[in-house]
Specification:
The protein is of the alpha/beta class and about 120 residues long.
Length: about 120
């Protein structure tokens, strides 16, 4: 038996708006869109994707699952994402090498710093 990772489901009050926000933030393509579901992928036939599915209740508390991204330039990416509508959030992370942001519906994600060379 084998399993292939298809997608991550993100519950959303407005899947089209939130999915479009993430598509623009990541530079991904839309592979499916309806009033209740919006799926994006890095390339049309590449998995896994992000699938935004309607859930008519607001997010409550800290997310139990979040995405981490490692950019070439953390400072530039954080600035770009903030300009795109992300918000800085404090989830109790303290002083860390990563930056915690939230999308327009409050879903947390991290922008990681550079990998440190081992010595």
């Amino acid at each position: 038996m084998t399993l292939e990772w298809e997608q991550v489901i993100v519950h959303s009050l407005d899947p089209v708006a939130l999915g479009q926000w993430w598509a623009e933030a990541l530079g991904w393509v839309v592979v499916h869109s309806s009033d209740d579901e919006f799926e994006i992928r890095s390339e049309p036939d590449r998995r896994p994707g992000l699938d935004f599915a309607r859930l008519d209740e607001p997010k409550k508390g800290k997310s139990r699952l979040h995405l981490d991204f490692r950019p070439d330039d953390q400072e530039a990416e954080v600035a770009r994402l903030l300009a795109h509508g992300a918000q800085r959030v404090d989830i109790g992370q303290g002083e860390q090498s990563w930056v915690v942001l939230a999308d327009p519906e409050g879903n947390e994600f991290c922008v990681l710093g550079q990998l440190q060379a081992s010595g």
